[in-house]
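Handout, section B. The chain below has 325 residues.
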Amino acid sequence: MIDVLSQIIRRTELGEVIALCTVVHTRGSTPQGKGAAMLVLRDGKTIGTLGGGCVEAEVRVRAQRLMDEKQNRVLSFRLDQDYGWDDGLVCGGIMDIAIQVIGSPEEAVPIQRVLDNLAGNRPGILVIDAADEQLQPTRFEIEIFPRPRLLIAGAGHVGRALALIAGQIDFELTILDDRPDLANTENFPGAQCIIGDIELELSRYKIDPRTYIVIVTRGHRHDARALAAVVESPAAYVGLIGSKRKIHTILSELDRQGVARNQLERVHAPIGLEIAAVTPAEIAVSIAAELIAVRRGRGDLPATPMKVPPEKLGRWLQRARTTAQ
């Protein structure tokens, strides 16, 4: 959403007319939830996504028409065979999508206010005024939160592999290491790079409940000191790489130093989800999956395949055969 809003400011300053398409309400199973956004340009190109498929294609066509008419509308889509069969989006749910035409910097001022709030690490409220399909005026308010921050302590192979994923899953990225030849913007483009003593810099870093910390330094001693610096912080996530033996040693030492049990229980160690990862890239995927789970409120639930079990599939197929007879 933040990237989409930033594009609105840039493009209206260039004199473009664009349409902001936002999911404002959902019922049932849908490919995207409230707050998902897509920008439609005059030539039909899009930025962002509403979940793909026929719905997104239809919204694009309607948005281009509304740009010509200079009108805002709220459209409702039921994801059944009509809109989803060809694209695999037979979710069964309903999506309400607001299309808001923005054609000047003045009209984009409310968008800039939202971005200013986010830049100040505060939530912003996106206000959307549009007419429903009965042409009745309606207003929606979408609360937008600043991106969570991912602080990676360790600029080695795993840290670098994780950094490649971090931006794609919408984290702001900070890299911390005491090796300037590794912790630099050439290796981590777009990231903030902090060079210095790892323990000291972590103790100085402003950690809040939206900060996610991954400790993947080059050795046991650095990992232990890094964890000691952040274990009692308000971070949303603290993860430590290492074998179970190493983790046992480090956590036992922190326990002897008086760190509370509940603080130690918050540490995700060994880090990541169990997917038999071996290479740095695979380990990074494992860590990223756990970050997503925590962010979506599933951090304490077991990670299991979403694949339909054979016995359930059998019941489905039998029911389908019976219905078809």
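Note. The two ends are 48 Å apart (CA to CA). Compare this with the example in section A.
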